[in-house]
Amino acid sequence: MATDDRDVDSNQKLDENLLAALPEGGKVVSVKPSGQSDYCATYRIQVSLPGGTSQVFFAKEGTGAEGLGCIESAWSSEQATYSFIPEHVPRPIAKGTYKSNPDKHFFLAQFVDMIEDEIPRPEAYMGALAALHSRSMGKSPGGKFGFDVNTRFGNLEQDNAWTDSWEEFWTRQMSDYLAREAAIHSADPPHEELERLKPLFLEKVLPRYLRPLESDGRSVTPCLIHADLWPGNVKYMSDGDTVCVYDACCMWAHNEADLGVIRNPRYPLGKSYLKEYWKRVPISEPEEDADSRMIMYMMRSQILLSILYPRDLKLRDIFVANMRLLVERVEAEEAEKKGGTGKRMAAPQVRL
């Protein structure tokens, strides 16, 4: 067990259960805020060790039931990603509840120095992602989709109940997200276009782009996905070469579900990053649906952001525009098949 003999108020010293997770015989040198989080407090803890060396740790602290859910999500997700790509993920060390306050909970991990203001190059960024997907492919419990806990996007809980079918799993999640998005905007004026498009999206678009993945002899093999791989969660380590991947909200899923964020124009990633990924992992069949699938997957984070930040109505308009695009693509296909006058909207080619 480590000790905290710093000359600070007793309420600023580390809790006994957190100290027990630090190296035996260590002495806490400093505790400083680390990073930004809207839902948990985060700290950088420096500990001096017998023999004159020192180690640095990262701690995340959550309060109440919501905080406990965030801590459980962090612990399970970081353990899972670390088990497959340990060279890219800070080593998770412990989770627990404070002895001094049973309503507070913590997650402890190795602290990794990172370069904050530089987005990793495509080969580094996507190399880590491809490694996670490839190494975990086919290793989900029972070959199912889901996860062993309900993880968090920000503080939003996602239903990760185990499911045999990828179409069933993704449809359930998207239905839930759209219902929650509607509930949080219930006091706003009705969004007539969203109300028109929503049933078409759930009843036409999702079957159109999910079902072919599991039809005509094809199947989806679950792999572990990070599920929040925006550039804020992927940084170079201090060597400027190896990337650090963190803050996952994992699930066992179709690997391409992790590519929605790469496709998202909100982030400066795009074609060169996708090209690097496809070098390492083949596009799922049917390949001609790949762009539409990525838009569909991209909408997950867009809808969740609309829930997290409901006063920013532009976030709502963004996912509605993509919903409209996919509905129009599917309806144009249907019109073409019926011999109508609708002109089919060709999906952009993915191989670049």
UniProtKB/TrEMBL annotation:
Domain of life: Eukaryota
Its EC number(s): 2.7.1.172
One Pfam family this sequence matches: Fructosamin_kin
Catalytic activity: N(6)-D-ribulosyl-L-lysyl-[protein] + ATP = N(6)-(3-O-phospho-D-ribulosyl)-L-lysyl-[protein] + ADP + H(+)
SUPFAM superfamilies: Protein kinase-like (PK-like)
Top EC group: transferase
Protein name: protein-ribulosamine 3-kinase
Protein species of origin: Humicola insolens (Soft-rot fungus)
